[in-house]
Hints:
alpha/beta, 6 helices, 22% helix, globular
Amino acid sequence: MVDLNIISAVLGPISTNCYTVANVQTKDAVIIDPADSGEHLVKMIEDQGLIPKAILLTHGHFDHCMAVPRLKEEYPEAEVIIGADDVQWLKDPQLNLSMPFIGEAFTLEADRTVTDGEEIEILGTKMQCIQIPGHTPGGICYYFPEQHLLFDGDTLFSGSVGRTDFPGGSQDALMSGIRQKLFTLPEETLVFPGHDRATTIEKEIRENMYF
């Protein structure tokens, strides 16, 4: 099994978790939800000797992607990937909440889109894309089945779930998606959410107050 190292940082105005996942041997890496502070991320990547291969966005809200322009400037070959149903969110400052929250119009273009069930070979291992609408229509959870690691953005939190009162939100879709697609993963799966602390599928099945 490929050994993956996870480096986390809390960045941006809404304290968003940014994760850098790297193959310990090859130093190939993906950056998940680079919220802000592009210079900080570039320095960390350089200090660790990592080779960014992709920038994975769990969804299109501004607080998960504001460092992308700086990362693309430094690493133009790293593909920006997002769920197909969230492309419009990146392009619309109202939908991505940059205007309502920070009063600035932030927009972004993705290099590639993914859909539910798509499997990608990356970092020398497999990564599955699990679409769960509800927080946004095209929210994607990135799951590494060999390592039992899940990066789920603002879908499932430790003891909570993502907000559904933003444009395109649906509580019914979110709850059913979590039950059908996340709670069926191995219980030992580590869950790395977009905010707050990490958890496990087993813990959320047993303790999450929303279920």
